[in-house]
Every structure is written in structure tokens, then in C-alpha cells.
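Lab channel / #folding
Pinned by the channel admin:
"Please post every new chain as: sequence first, then the C-alpha cells as a reply. Keep commentary short and put observations after the output so the thread stays searchable."

First post following the new format, from NK:
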Amino acid sequence: MNDVQRGVVRIKPVYIGIHQYRDVYGSVCSADVEGTPPIPAPSMQELEKATQGMIDRFQEGLEVNFVEMEKPLMVKEHEDLRRLPAELSYDVDALLVEAIGSAPLELRALSQCGLPIIHNASADFLRALRVKKFLKQSKFLYIGEIPSFSAPNGPWDFSALEERLGVRVRHIETNEFFRQFDRFSEEEVKKELEIWKKDFDEVLEPTEQHLMDATRVYLALRALCRREDANGLTVNCGRFTEERPVVPCLAFDRLIDEGIMCSCEGDITAMLSSFMIHAVSDQTMLMGNFGSRPGYFGCKKGEVTIEHDIIPRSMASRGFTVRDYHGRKFGVTGYAEIKKEPMTLLNVDKSLNTISVIEGKIKSSEDGIHCRIIIHMSVEGDVQEVPEIIVGSQHVSMTFGHWLGALKELGNLLDLEVRHL
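Reply from TO:
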């Protein structure tokens, strides 16, 4: 993948050192004191010290590690303000601003740049900025027929998606995937499989050939993402099995841990929520069918569930038990017990204007056979209200930790309605 890191938040410091009262008679507010000396303009040395102090105070309070500071602009004279557009790049995400005194006109001029102006910033706000930046720097591959028969509601206007959130998309036909699938030699595949087997605790139904095919899927998807500089992919996987008995499930587990977010069944909203939940947390994620009523996707009374075939090794408490696909004697999936951590669920509406966020805690997981893993979770709030706030498709994305505060800030940045308990 490209070495340029996605989601780095860049801050441009601007210190306004223009004092508003330089008249020889001093401030009008000090006119009662006869002979008030004039207020001298700050020296460049004083400006540099004040600017560095502003930067130091901001960095001392940082609770995140993805923020980088640009070269500061020190405004000593009014004409210095005109230097700002030339010093800004498209990569700058916010302005860190302080002034020697009141500077309403200068702050208004800075606001015309269209960037957030901050004096200090919470971790939640910075994480929201990171999500916004990450989306603009992301690209995913949609592999297979459009629309997906199991996630048919889109959004399918990829140009509109890019205009709304900045995410780019490339559609790849199934036959192009299988051309990649076939180009790897048996020696290459065996070598990669031996590396992969270190994550396997046991192998049940799959044969060695099934494992070789699953490795080819991984190599083909990784090669396509590298070629396209993509950090996400979604596959209309039902169409894979019409041509050959292969599925991408186990490959997804590994790709997610390598920084390529994955969603199943050609689900675009799940792809977007996977990007968002990964970017806000800077952690791996998984996604799947969402159960919020007893009997749906393994759900029991008083809980919610995710049921699907994805669990990255980093989210598991042990290695994979390698199984077939849905008990059908072909394909490869992996089951492993998930770590019992606090979690956040996220899904995105096809309108791209609303998201749902649920915080809670993982209780347990089990092998669901049809879908390989069922994750049982408690929620923070009234579980009876969960169906009322859910938007989007039948799929949700999940990561460890609680991120509602940051996702609310994201709602402010991207004009998203945030539904939550």
C-alpha cells in the first residue's frame, strides 16, 4: 500500500500579534490616566515566543497521536494576513488561532478560509476531524454485479458519494477478480498459506485445496487494492460462488488487520460505516447482520447481536478454528472467541445524512454455523428502543471502545443526524 498515511490531522497555527491600541495617547479605556504611555507593538522575538507558547499549550493537552502541526504564521502587520492562502495546502484541516488582544476583523478574515478555527480542541473533536480527513483520503473497490441482491438499496451513485463524503469508488467485475485469482503460482500460494497457518488453532472441514483457494482470494484482493491504492473493499460474494466454490470471509479477516476495511455482500452503507468506525477509533473493526429483537440473528432478550463470518485475529482472544462456509462443505471461514470489551456499533443510512450509534459491552460469542460467529452484546440504554434508532441496511459495523462523543462531533462537521440511545 502507499506509504502516505491516511487520516493525519494537520493544524496550521496562526498567532495575531497586532495590538488594536497603538495611539500615542493609549487606549480610550485608559484616558483617565494623564500621560498614559503608548502601547508598543510586539517585537518579532516576543511574537515567536507567544506563538510557540500557543503551540506548546495545545500539544500538552493532546490525547491523540494523529495530529501534526504545520509551520506557524505570525501576523505582525495587517499585510501578513494576505500570506495565509499561499501557506495553506489542501491538506490542512483546522487553524489554531490566538491573538494578543481582541481581533474580531482578523478572525473574520481567517474564517473565510472555510476551515475550523480552534483555540484548543477536545479529543472527540480531533477524532471527528480525523474521520472527515480519512474519508476524503479513502477509496474502496466494489467487486461484482451491481446491485447486490442481498444489500440492494445502495447508495449506487458513486459520484454523489464522493461529493458528499469524499470517498472514491472503483467498480471491478468478477471476471477481473478471477484473472487476479488465477495468476499466482502454486508455490506463491503455499508460501503465503504457511505464514497464515500460524493464526490457525485447528482446521476442521476445509481441505488443503480449500485453504489454498482462500489464500488465493486473499492474494487477489490484496493485489487489487495495492494496484488501485484502495483501503477498503466490498464484494457481492454471492456471485463468487456462482462461478467457483470460493468466498472472501477469511481473507477479509486478514485484510482488515492489514488496514484494508471490508464489508460483505456489496453493502455500501456497511463499507462507509466500516471506514468511519475504524477512523474514529484507530482500531480494527468487524461487521455483520444486526439482531435487536429476540430470535433475530441469534439475539436473546435484553441484548443485541452481530451474526456474520468476519472476525479479525486482532479482535479475537485466541487463534482461528477454521471452518467451511455456512456448513456447506466448501469455502473457508474462521471462528474465534471475541475479546470481551466495551464496544460501539455504527451504521449509515443510504441518504448519507443519518447515522446510528450504539454503545455497550461484549458479553460472549459463539459459532453460529450458518453465519460463523454470533456476538452477544449488552447496550448502554434501553434495549427496547434500539429498533427505533437504527438506519441503513441489515448490517452494522463494530469496534472496541466507546466513541459516541466523537461521532456526535462528526455529525456537526458533516451535517449528519446522529441517532443514539
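NK: The chain has a mean pLDDT of 93.
TO: also worth noting, The radius of gyration is 26 Å.
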